[in-house]
Amino acid sequence: MNRKALAQLISSSLLAIALIFGELATAAETEQEPIYFGSVAMDTPGEMHFHLTPLTEYLTQALNRRVVLKLSTNMTAAINTLVDGTVDFAYLTPVAYVNAHARGNARLVVKAMPEDELRLSIVVRDESPIKTVQDLEGTRLALGDPAALLQRAVVVGAGMPLDKLGSYSFLNHYNNIVRAVLIRDFDAGVVMESTAIKWKSQGLRTIYTSDNLPPYNIAAHPKVDDETVKKVRDALMRLDPKNPAHKPIVSALQETFGGFAAGDDSDYDIVRKLVAPFRK
In this structure, what DSSP letter does residue 108 have? Predict the structure, then answer.
């Protein structure tokens, strides 16, 4: 091979290599960062992984962008991850949303459908002598997360001042509350109405259920751009429990879950009013 032909071969090879690396660089530059999705800890991390993984997998497909689940061990930690931007979106209780909005200007993306409005129930064992809220005086009451002020507001709103209880303790998760009541560690507990219904056949009885409260929701950190928020909102609002392909996703969140709808921050003003007396 003469010198000219060799030079042309080398030049062609270098051009090919440059093009390959250029394509790789372009691909790396255009690859989007994953979206991080957090949640309040209604149950243990294992349970919450079961509840939310189908949703994050659905969003990954709908957005054509990886959505990574980052779970927290308690409500305070879940709020902190949204406030500091560790997660981009989070599945929150009404109180968690109110706190995240106040501390970090979290944006409401969607809320649960109206038929899924939150109600809290006070539960006891089937054979318990406790029949009414007034019978709770002097008893041991199990609550969830210390930051879940709505539980205490519901007890007081039902007519039982906390200082008339024998004691109350925080067990973090709803299933922990139920088990503690059933094994007699506590006389009563406060759980979601859906949890009370789920455990009824295991010996749980409801003595009081609250009025409708604003529902669970999904909120975003303010750094998330409007286009991404809109894509996530649209994908969530497309979820239809009547669609066989969507049914496993919404059922994993809650058996009677009806999907998501648009909401407004003012929808949670009643929560702000209810929990105000219990803030330090």
Answer: E
